[in-house]
Amino acid sequence: MPKSILVATSDPAYGELLRSGLEDSGLYGVTLASGGSELLSLASEHAYDLAILDAELPGEPFAPLVHGLAAACPRMKVMIVPPENNPRHALLTGLAPHGYIFNPFFLPDLLDGVQAVLAAAEGPPPQPLLVHSALRAEGLCWVEDPQRAGQVLARLLLQTDAAAMLVAFEGKLWASAGSLPEPAVAEIAGGLGEWWQEGQKLDLARYLRLRSTGSEHLVYSTALLDQLVLALVYAGGSSLTRARAQSALAAEELSRLAAPQPAAEPDALDEDAPDEEALEINLAALLADMPPPDPQAHPEPHLDSAALEWLREEEINFPWEEGERGAGAEPSAQDWRALLGAADDAPRENCFTCALLPAQPNQHLTGALAEQIGMGIRQICMDFGWRLSGLAVRPGHVQFSVTVGPDGSSSSVASVVRQRTSERIYNRFPHLRAARGGDFWAPGCLDVPGIGSIPVETLRNYITQTRQSQGHQPSNGTVE
Q1: Residue 59 zone, left/alpha/beta (φ > 0; ψ -120 to 50; rest)
Q2: Helices 146-157 and 367-384: crossing angle, nearest 10°?
Q3: DSSP state of 441
Q4: For residue 464, which of 447, 449, 453, 479 has the smallest C-alpha distance?
């Protein structure tokens, strides 16, 4: 009997593409839903084996929709089409589906993925981690929102030498920040679930080689609360003493977030003090020492008539009008507009667009490599609280537009991006590290102020100059 699949997407063409591909195999029957309400209605009427959900469904927020679907159909498997092919997108925070479908999909891969999910051991779909009531009682409310917890960890990570920081609750990953790829973070979180004993109070340090990346790391973990563990992940050669000190500081900072603010105590009352209404005021006694209001006893000081003369309007010169009023110029409305707009021109945020080139001209940024670069830049911006306004990964270069705080600079942003994406690329593609070594990116960075694509001519000149400085022959001038 064919397995029944419920597909929810707001794109009818994409839905029909999934339906035809799945039904033509003869293994599945597919029902389409165009929105969240229709999805829940269909799921309540029929027991589907699998739901394929487009994360960008219109209507109610996606995460609560999936929670409601899982509660209504606990035996149904769930696969998600992530926004921008990013399983760690903010829309998916707190969700743990059975699988993902990436676009554009290759039909045999789609069929294999669906078959693998349906063939998995029967059981209820993973539920999002629910924070124990004890955490709320301890004041650790920031843990309730994984996105907020990730932002807190990202801020603390900047104060350490760690490559990543994560929080696990009851042996399961809850939030993380840093440059480690997702499989490595998941492997470390799984290790914490095995190593950490319930009720353990002492810190735990482990040196390990990750199966997913082959890299060596020091993992230093400490308990924030029973079953709530903070772990800092360092490079394999890091100092244990330094890791212990930084872990203690991070745990102390997190405890400050949970510390309740002392309530203001009411002013102490003097029980022996008489009631305000019972006070009697002797007005005559109070006024006895006041001088009489006699104008003759205190004559007005003499003022020169010149001191009482009002200044004429044309004699008032403001600092920004020097050189104009003196020449007899009339006040201009433009002057006032410039003055009023001065506050708006004060710098509040820095916006710029950066471009990076791969160190080797023959290294094309395509396929899985381009996907890792794009995901890496998005994750970095999320970790550091930068607003990513544009991202383009081309075969010959990558450019991205970001907005940072007043203290941020394009050079510091480019330095962080090149360092963290290089590490991400080498962890995912170890053969590139062996072949290239060091920095994956060419020296320097092209940055222009503002948000938007860099002009083609500017980009072409930068590529030519960079390749010539590296000793490579200039290309035919095309920008890929």
Answers
A1: left
A2: 90
A3: B
A4: 479
How many CB atoms neighbour CB 119 within 10 A?
8
List per-residue pLDDT tens for the chain, 480 residues long: 788 999 999 888 888 989 988 998 888 999 999 888 888 888 888 889 999 999 888 877 888 888 888 877 878 899 999 888 888 788 887 777 888 898 877 788 888 888 888 886 444 444 443 444 444 444 455 556 666 777 778 888 888 888 889 888 777 787 888 878 888 888 888 888 777 766 666 788 888 888 878 888 889 988 887 678 889 999 887 888 888 888 888 888 777 665 444 444 444 444 444 444 444 555 555 555 565 555 555 454 444 444 434 434 344 444 444 444 444 444 444 444 444 444 444 456 889 999 999 988 888 898 889 989 998 898 888 778 888 888 899 999 999 999 988 878 888 899 889 888 988 888 888 888 766 667 899 988 999 998 888 888 988 999 999 988 888 765 555 565
Supply φ then ψ for residue 391, to 5 degrees.
-150, 130
The single-letter code of the amino acid at 282 is N
Q: Are 440 and 425 in contact (CB under 8 A)?
A: yes
H-only helix segments in 289-366: 333-345
pTM of the prediction?
0.34
**Residue 95: phi, psi to the nearest 5?**
-105, 145
Domain 133-258: give its CATH code.
3.30.450.30
Select the CATH number that applies to the domain covering 3-119 from these four: 3.40.50.1970, 3.30.420.40, 3.40.50.2300, 2.60.120.620.
3.40.50.2300
Which sign, positive or negative, has the C-alpha torsion 82, 88, 93, 97? positive
All structural domains of the chain with their residue ranges: 3-119, 133-258, 350-469
What is the DSSP secondary-structure string of 200-254? Answer: --S-EEEEEE-TTT--EEEEEEEEEETTEEEEEEEETT--HHHHHHHHHHHHHHH
Could you please state the CATH topology (level 3) that the domain comprising 350-469 is classified under. Alpha-Beta Plaits (3.30.70)
Instruction: Render the burial of 271-282: b for 16+ CB within 10 Å, e for the rest.
Output: eeeeeeeeeeee
- Cα 395 from Cα 123, distance rounded (Å): 43
Tell me how far apart the alpha carbons of residues 5 and 214 are, in angstroms, rounded to a whole number. Answer: 38
